What we know:
By secondary structure, the chain is of the alpha+beta class. 20% of the residues lie in helices and 29% in strands. It is built from 7 helices and 15 strands.
Amino acid sequence: MPSFFSLCHHIIIIFFSLVPQKSFGVVNPFFQTCSVPKTCGDGQAIRYPFYIQDKQNSSCGYPEFNLSCNNNGHPTILISNNNYTIHEIFYQNETLRVSNSTFSNLNSSCIPFISNISLPDEFDLAPNQTNLFLFYTCSSSVHKSWPSEFYPSCYGENDTVLALSRQEPKLISNVSMECKSSVQAPVEAYGGGIAESLRNGFVLKWKASSCSICEDSGGKCGFDYIKYHFKCFCPDRTRVWNCTNTTRFEYLP
């Protein structure tokens, strides 16, 4: 018959065999890498779900959220094959304010030619945004009807662009028929003039796996591009969602 001490010994062994094993003294390299935000130079800390190409490991960000840095030290994102300057990222409510980089470099009131924006699945236009309507190469009759709404084009001395902030569908449709091309340019708010509104840009809402559960547990958010799934990089190892779950199956190599 086994002694009392022998039974206790076996109970202790069984108990520790059921406890998730941690690698003491081992630091998760992904946790280290993703713990240090980067900047393009304007002071904006770039972190999950974004990452700067050539500056940050892609595992620290989410697919399609890769950024570049322009010559002025601002982060930019590629949307519809056009670069958009990121003016501010609001991590708490998962939005960012951007503008077409063509507008960001303007110091005058001239209007460049742009194309309509087509947002990828990862982004939506935030609520309470509005549209400016830009019309290019319009007929003389439109010039006579809206003389004060024409602005100089950035690509020709005698070329002008009609910019309307009105939202009446019938008016927009009638003007469109008298101009060669038209564009809807979203803006956060119309005020201070057409050029300034375009430079200030508009707000986008992003869609990516939430980071709060992982961050609140002491982890750093990231993405596994092999398994194509969100990952929580904890100090000791990588887990599926957070660093406090004690289920053995939460641990990943």
